[in-house]
Amino acid sequence: MSLIIDNVSKSVDGEIHLQDIHLTMQKGSFNTLLGPTLSGKTSLLRLLAGLDKPTSGRIMMGGQDLSSIPVWKRNVSMVYQQFINYPHLDIYENIAFPLRRAGLAKAEIDRKVRATAETLRIDELLRRSPGELSGGQQQRTALARSLVKGADLLLLDEPLINLDYKLREEFHDEFTNIFADNRDTIIIYSSTDPLESLLLGGDILVLDEGRQLQHGPTHDVYRNPRMEAVARVFNDPQMNMINGRVENGRIVLGQGLTLPRSTHMTDLREGKYRFGLRANALGLSRASADDVELEARVELGEINGSETFVHIHHNEVSWVVQEDGVHTHSLGQVIRVYFNPEYLFAFDEKGMLAAAPKYVPGSGTAEE
Amino acid sequence: MLVSRQKLIFLLPGLLVLVAIIIFPLLFTIRVSFSSWDVMYPGLDWIGGKNYSRLFSDSRFWESLQRLAGIAVGTVVIEYLLGFGLALLVWKEVRYKRFFRVLFLVPMMTTPVIMSVIWRTIFHESLGPLNNILGFLGLGQVPWLSTAGMAVVSVMMVEIWQWTPFMFLLLLAGLLSLPKEPFQAAAIDGAGPFRTFFMVTFPLMAPISIGTLIIRLIEASKIMETVYVLTSGGPGTATETSSYYIYIRGLRDFQIGYAASLSVTYLVLMILALTILAKFLVRAFISKDKA
Amino acid sequence: MAKIDLNGVGHCYSGKPEKLEDFALRPMNHSWDHGRAYALLGPSGCGKTTLLNIISGLIRPSEGRVLFGGVDVTDQPTAKRNIAQVFQFPVIYKNVTVYNNLAFPLRCRKLPADEIDRKVREVARLLNLTEQLKSSAARLSADAKQLISLGRGLVRNDVAALLLDEPLTVIDPHLKWLLRRKLKEINDTYNQTMVLVTHDQNEALTFAEKVVVMQAGQIVQVGTAQELFENPRHTFVGYFIGSPAMNFMPCRLDGNAVKVGEERISLPELATVDVPPEGKVEIGIRPEFLKLEHDASPDTLEVPILNVRDLGNFRIATVRFAGHDLKIKIPEARPIPSEKGFLRFPRQWTKLYVDDVLREPAGA
Amino acid sequence: MLGLYRFLKYSAILLWSAFVAGPFLWALTTSFKTSEGIVSGATYIPWLQYKPSLDGWGVLFRRGGQGIDIVDPYLASLTVTLSASAISLVLGTLAAYGLSRFSYKAGPIKNADITFFFISQRIMPPIVLSIPFFLMLQAFGLLDTKLGLIIVYVALLMPIAVWVMIDFFHNIPVELDETAMLDGCRPVETFFRVILPNCKPGLVVAGLFCLIFGWNDFFFAFMLTFTKTQLLPVAVVALNSSVTPWWSLSASALVSVAPLVILAFVVEKYLSRGNLAGAIK
């Protein structure tokens, strides 16, 4: 059974929420919707759930047009950002609710509820009411309820956004286990966090302002963003973007930082480009002889998890440098940063990718 | 959409019942107002706008409207001030807070006409307790229900007793829903109780104040039951409100057609006045927002 | 202008603590130096809000004294304490202008009009609010409103401490770093004691010179961001700071090695630490510092690699060691061995904890 | 300073309490009097100022002659108020749920207009509707019947139920309904299985308001019933205009207002919470 989203658009009161979304998802696939706030992720999920109708286009599942099937007859689950559970039912009954609606036998319900509760580690809480639980436990309940019925389509709308980051980490570690049995399900997980999508793997659809920017295997899209907008959405911290040009066989960045043309750029025609550089490609120490050195002033050292994002200012341009570990930088301090031109992306004047750094897939093992 | 048939199940029963009970009578009233239906010749003839031209020169009607406006606005303003004050009193920690909160609500639970019956005995000039107590305090006797001015005061007093609780209830609910931080911030900024009230409490309560005032104005513009029991509009016409005057014309004199035209006029004027008042209130309470 | 001292301050909401666990805030001594930027960091329910309320005077501690510049203010109400506070949700006087908002605390203090005007304009300039001085405060965006709340603290000369209670909760994520920068700038310019209360690690570490980490009603460590990361003095800090969290394994000391299960890690210095017989002993090491080598050497241990997650900027490998899953963070550029690798515990980054508290060898 | 403030505060509270309680206390003491306690001016304290008697209370339950039969009006009032409140609550809650969750459209009329139509019924002065109501009930043979009054009261009370419940539903996240539908509930099932069980506080407040305005209405009961059916307020006011002595008047008044006053103390916890605040904004 595959899910086909056929040229779907959605507008509300003349405002476009989604425009020409066109893609196919296979049974057993895990898909991430990545996009900033208001990029149309929730709108798309709601269309797929059947909670809203597309303005134009069709959504097909297993060859059947879904538009004539009401929500309650579809086999769809959805987990929201808010922790939505039935307040008047205890955790057991919350999880059992969809099964009871489907008319399953008592013993079958009991077996499934307990198994799912165990997967989500809430089996000790079955007789509590949702109001007595912490946010993390409430979301576990909601997840359990959405998993228990074995839906064809499991939609997760930024389910961890309202949890603090240690709890998010906990969920991330468990997701492999929680979503282990998805052979018959299409899972779609929306997120604003590039790191989270990379962690979830699978396929990705990058959305921005209601448009479908790129669709493909998550890590491929990360290495080869089709356009500047994808690179912008799919990097945290944002990819550094610098106006520049290819001139006389050399690359000129900004106000005249001239670099030799590295191998992946040899095919670039002369002209104006936007050059992109991931924050982790910049470092505070020289890593190789080819490195370019910049002198810059520190705007802020922002700590994120176990990294430090150093916001710097060089020649009227703001850059972000990602430094491993937690470090302190004082405002206005002058530092030297280094980068290797091998890591530069180039985007043409239309914003389309012109050259991407070569990625040697580490000698790393495959996913999982 | 598929929900469309199901969603009607919710709305239609209530809507149809209400339309049936309200709209037809309303249209009927309008139709009757163009007829000369009275006790001698009951029936729906057509006399055009005669009833309406008659009411234009009916000074008793216009006076009753003026009186109504005075009494309604007067009582509502007093109720608002008292209700707000009471809500402030039992908002924070007070001993037996829960008891007082309910006690203050009790009058609105009671039947206005029945309590008016009791009030009549209280206002009794020689046998009632009010004059007795005033006498005891050395303040002399007041002709509560027998002079025009005091009769209006009596009616207003009963209305205030009855309905201040309603104001109190809504305003207290409002106060209880306010966030704590603005008050802490004001304390930290060094504001005293008065500054805190005018800079924090009152502005935060503005939307709720407007709501309660409008609701009470709507209810107060219908005043008639208290009048009926307490004074029967008297002495003379001193406490005759519009509703009461229409009642006299329509259901005592049985001039149905004329009473209908009075009703329609009254309703239209009321809606107009309330709309204007609502606009005015919004401006009065949150004008500075827009500056 | 003052140092804030907490002498034996503790709080129990029920009033009658019978055991240590009854305290929402366990009795403690702590000083806040004048002019520094502090962050009070901990998960919800750790007692940080109680501590904040004790400083601001909304709660009277059930034990101990609070001193501002040596003066006992334990019994003083909030209004008398000369503190300023920015709340989670912006608090503004919504029916007056930005100017009047900023002037309000000074008017309450009956300052002369020209001095009020001077201070308001000075602070407005610092907060980039000069353009908006005449507009109604209610119509500004959330971040501007939050700046006004901050400004009402800054206009005053008498502020002993500026308390910030999760002030960036309602701020757009992309504006957050601008505001973080502004806060740091203000701390530099005004030399005012600032205490930021937050559950957000990144917020706290970015803002503060000194981060005070709290857990279960206690302060578990006070230090710079780098200290907390590199040398957590409590297992909670190792878990709470950094992502992914520090790896911990129960262990025993055996000769010149640390023994985890049946595996021996040769760490002669650490093995000299005195360990009480009943104590819970653990070693901890951050995923950033644990090394996964391609080739065996005398100080490495062979481990199977369970999985590798590619997170773009870096990868996380999970290996199994003596029955424990350990995470190792590996930069994008460095290759990872497949299936099995050799684990090395660098001495400098391997920590020993007894009953959750860091124990260092005598010579260190 | 603080002491003075506290003194003023408690004085104000006690003063208002006296004003509120005064009429009840007066009625209570009067209900035990005989003419001896009345004709020579106001008296307050039994035994001391007058000899208490149960005459005022006794006549309430006696039929014919000296008796004032208050039992029949009492039962009639109960029947009419409870039925009308129940119907209003059911219809009003359903309509409020529909209006808060779905969008309706009929030509230019949309949800906001329908909501306004419901709630604006409170503006209608009883007098405006009384004449057509009279004629309508007469046409259907419902004049002077309980059923007739119930129908009229439904029109009176439903707007109140809609007003309170709409706000209550707005505070329940729509995602809860959606989750129920995704879990296999039709809209109607969603309402009964998921929403209604979580509505108790709203229903209590709405129900109480219906009871207050139903039980306490006088005008329609007065206009639309005569002899066969008599509601409590009409019965008591009728006593007022006749030569009924003050003591039985007081006793009957107290009996009439007692149920709601007691109810108010029972549901107290629902009333003073912030439940209502949203409804007014």
Q: Could you describe the 3D structure shown?
A:
The complex is a heterotetramer of chains A (368), B (291), C (364) and D (281). In chain A, 22% of the residues lie in helices and 35% in strands. With 368 residues, chain A is an alpha+beta fold. Chain A folds into two domains: 2-229, Rossmann fold, CATH 3.40.50.300; 240-355, Nucleic acid-binding proteins (OB fold (Dihydrolipoamide Acetyltransferase, E2P), Beta Barrel), CATH 2.40.50. In chain A, the strands form four sheets. A six-stranded mixed beta sheet of chain A has the order 6-7-8-3-9-10, sandwiched between helices. A six-stranded antiparallel beta sheet of chain A has the order 13-12-11-14-20-21, with no helix packed on it. In chain A, a hairpin with a 2-residue loop joins strand 9 and strand 10. The longest helix of chain A has 14 residues, at 106-119. Chain A starts with a strand and ends in a 13-residue tail after the last strand. The model of chain A is unreliable at 362-368 (pLDDT under 50). With 291 residues, chain B is mainly α. In chain B, helix 1 (3-32) crosses helix 13 (256-290), helix 3 (59-91) packs antiparallel against helix 10 and helix 9 runs antiparallel to helix 10. The radius of gyration of chain B is 23 Å and the shape is globular. Chain C has 364 residues and is of the alpha+beta class. Chain C has two domains: 4-239, Rossmann fold; 246-359, Nucleic acid-binding proteins (OB fold (Dihydrolipoamide Acetyltransferase, E2P), Beta Barrel). In chain C, helix 2 (98-108) runs parallel beside helix 4 (142-154). Classes of the chains: A alpha+beta (368), B mainly alpha (291), C alpha+beta (364), D mainly alpha (281).
Strand % of chain A is 35-45%
Mean pLDDT of chain A: 90
What characteristic shape of chain A results from the CA principal axes?
globular
Structural class of chain C: alpha+beta
The helix/strand class of chain A is alpha+beta
The largest β sheet of chain C comes out as: 6 strands, mixed
- Any idea what the CATH architecture of the largest domain in chain C is? 3-Layer(aba) Sandwich
The CATH fourth-level homologous superfamily of the largest domain in chain A: P-loop containing nucleotide triphosphate hydrolases
Number of strands of chain C: 22
Main sheet strand line-up of chain A: 6-7-8-3-9-10
* CATH topology (level 3) name of the largest domain in chain A: Rossmann fold
What distance separates the N and C termini of chain C?
A: 38 Å
CATH topology of the largest domain in chain C: Rossmann fold
- Residue windows where pLDDT falls under 50 for at least 5 positions of chain A: 362-368
Helical content band of chain C: 10-25%
